[in-house]
From TrEMBL:
Enzyme class: ligase
Family: Belongs to the class-II aminoacyl-tRNA synthetase family. ProS type 2 subfamily.
Lineage of the species this protein comes from: Bacteria, Pseudomonadati, Pseudomonadota, Alphaproteobacteria, Rhodobacterales
GO molecular function, one term: proline-tRNA ligase activity
Location in or out of the cell: Cytoplasm
Domain of life per record: Bacteria
Annotated protein name in UniProt: Proline--tRNA ligase
Chemical reaction(s) catalysed: tRNA(Pro) + L-proline + ATP = L-prolyl-tRNA(Pro) + AMP + diphosphate
InterPro entries to which the protein is assigned, alphabetical: aa-tRNA-synt_IIb, aa-tRNA-synth_II, aa-tRNA-synth_II/BPL/LPL, Anticodon-bd, Anticodon-bd_dom_sf, Pro-tRNA-ligase_IIa, Pro-tRNA-synth_IIa_bac-type, Pro-tRNA_synthetase
Amino acid sequence: MRLSRYFLPVLKETPAEAQIVSHRYMLRAGMIKQASAGIYSWLPLGFKVLKKIENIVHEEQQRAGHIPMLMPTLQSADLWRESGRYDGYGEEMLRMKDRHGRDMLYSPTAEEMFTDVFRSYVKSYKDLPLTLYQIQWKFRDEIRPRFGVMRGREFFMKDGYNFDLTKEDALHAYNRHLVSYLRTYERMGLQAIPMRADSGPIGGDYTHEFLVLADTGESEVFYDSKVTDISLGKRDIDFDDVAQCQAVMDEFTSLYARTDETHVEAEFNEVPEDRRRVARGIEVGQIFYFGTTYSDKMGATVVNDQGDHVPVHMGSHGIGVSRLLGAIIEASHDDKGIIWPEGVTPFHCGIINLRQGDDAADAACESLYSALIAAGLEPLYDDRNERAGGKFATMDLIGLPWRITVGPRGLKNGVVELTSRKTGESVEMPPEQAAAKVV
Ligand code: ATP
Ligand code: MG
Ligand code: MG
Ligand code: MG
């Protein structure tokens, strides 16, 4: 992409309404524009990162054997009356009537909808296990939408639902989700710690939230600092291997790590004192096993090998896809702007032409630009007729991992400058070498 032809409405001033750094940078970098409270337009740069994150979530869900589909955002109230949640859900549910006076709502989550699809088609235990998921817009009429995409009213969420014959199978699905979520966050350059949590209105005994540690997080968390030393890394996971998934679950959840709702001071005090941490975190996902709560109420049964009709064991599992943009920025930025991890960066590399219109500089930039595209990367070439200072400030703000700076003076010695956004380190080298380093 050439910046002269892109749409990147960068703001010079810090918007007064933004209280936290991720919100400020998303507005300043021209990623989002507020449409109304908690509802955002996704401008090209923000949309690009949103899609990158969505793709990673899709890849990791499908790697775990989960099947993507799509539900409507507008749903009839009838299904929600069956589960009892139409009245129970409260003010967060956005309700409306259609022209015939029928009660409708904008889906805040989709247990009912998925359970209904399941019961309509699946009749036999032979069709289990089954995990269906979607990545779709949700609406919750949050009492205090704030911090930009962190707590929106309209937000993008992955929600998945497992259907299993037995509790044992459903707990394997639960573990599978834990493992696939760990992979998902790590690919985004994030450490998200599974913590024992409260199941809230969805109900059930088993639930973990995934928290990214950040001072601006809305949750208070208590943990053994040793949990921050564990990572999944490049392990080869067989998602059908019950013992392997259980082992990962045990490894990640046996140390003390809880949100305030489930925190027990006496147990926390058993953690060696120098490892006890009280901090704040951003909830970027949550997994649940809730047994037959919905299948009982909605009649989602299968015939087992004895010929009996039995309710299926279910769980639901969510990732805050749009919230993740905020969480990643909170975890990775400096005073100049965002520092995107490689996995989610909107463009891989920025090219800055210090003297647009200089024949040698223009030619070197053009050839770098095409070399990077040929290598399968997406470079962002700042080809505008602007001061160098302004170009640097924009690149730093939007936070691409690499910047190649090209100017007539360096080119006389056959070099350009390659700069890492993360370390700030700059090294001079021939253009071909710079291109090779970025790839
Ligand atoms: P919170 O405690 O932050 O209100 P939640 O527990 O109500 O979140 P879940 O029902 O667990 O949310 O939904 C799954 C994921 O969706 C959450 O872990 C979070 O990452 C994301 N999410 C929930 N509410 C919002 C929101 N208002 N804006 C953006 N993302 C959200
Ligand atoms: Mg909530
Ligand atoms: Mg929560
Ligand atoms: Mg939650």
